[in-house]
Design brief:
Strand order of the largest sheet: 4-3-2-1-5
CATH architecture: Alpha-Beta Complex
Shape: globular
CATH class: Alpha Beta
Strand content: 15-25%
InterPro entries: DUF6950
Organism: Mesorhizobium sp. WSM2240
Number of helices: 4
Distance between the termini: 16 Å
Oligomer: single chain
Number of strands: 5
Largest sheet: 5 strands, antiparallel
Pfam family, one: DUF6950
Protein name: DUF6950 domain-containing protein
CATH topology: endopeptidase fold (from Nostoc punctiforme)
Domain DUF6950: 5-133
Helix content: 25-40%
Structural class: alpha+beta
Order of helices and strands: HHHHEEEEE
C-alpha cells in the first residue's frame, strides 16, 4: 500500500464522525497516524476529555508545538525545516482557532480533525508553525 493509500484509508476511518476529545481530536488523531506509520505510540501527550482540558494541557506545556516536540523526541522524530511532505505531521496556525495539529497530504493540503469532522486546510507557508517528517 502506498503512503497516499494508507493516508486515505486512515482518513476514511473517521469520515463523518465528530471529534472525541482526547481520542481523535487534532492532536490524538495525528498521533494515531504516527503510530500507524511507525508502529510506535506517541508518548507524553497527556490525558484529557474536553476542549478545556486540552487547552490546559497545551498551556502547561508552553504551546501545542512544544507539547508535540516533547512527545516526538523519544521516538527520534524531530522538526524538519523542509516543506511538508505527504504523511508528515505538523502544527498550523489558523485565524479562528490558533494552532492545530494536522497531517499533511499532497499539494500543500493539511488534514485537520475539526470539531465537526475532518477538514482540509491549505495553509500558507507562514502559517505552518512546525513540521515533523514521518
Amino acid at each position: 500500500m502506498t503512503r497516499a493509500e494508507q493516508l486515505q484509508a486512515f482518513v476514511m476511518a473517521v469520515e463523518g464522525k465528530p471529534v472525541e476529545w482526547g481520542r481523535d481530536d487534532c492532536t490524538t488523531w495525528a498521533a494515531a497516524w504516527v503510530k500507524e506509520v511507525t508502529g510506535r505510540a506517541v508518548p507524553q501527550l497527556g490525558s484529557y476529555a474536553t476542549l478545556e482540558e486540552a487547552h490546559t494541557l497545551i498551556d502547561e506545556a508552553g504551546g501545542l508545538d512544544v507539547l508535540w516536540s516533547m512527545a516526538l523526541a523519544p521516538l527520534s522524530i524531530y522538526e524538519t525545516p523542509d516543506q511538508p511532505q505527504l504523511g508528515d505531521v505538523g502544527i498550523v496556525n489558523t485565524a479562528r482557532l490558533g494552532h492545530v495539529g494536522v497531517i499533511f497530504a499532497q499539494d500543500g493540503i493539511a488534514l485537520w480533525r475539526a470539531i465537526e469532522g475532518t477538514a482540509l486546510l491549505r495553509p500558507r507557508s507562514r502559517d505552518i508553525v512546525k513540521v515533523w517528517h514521518i
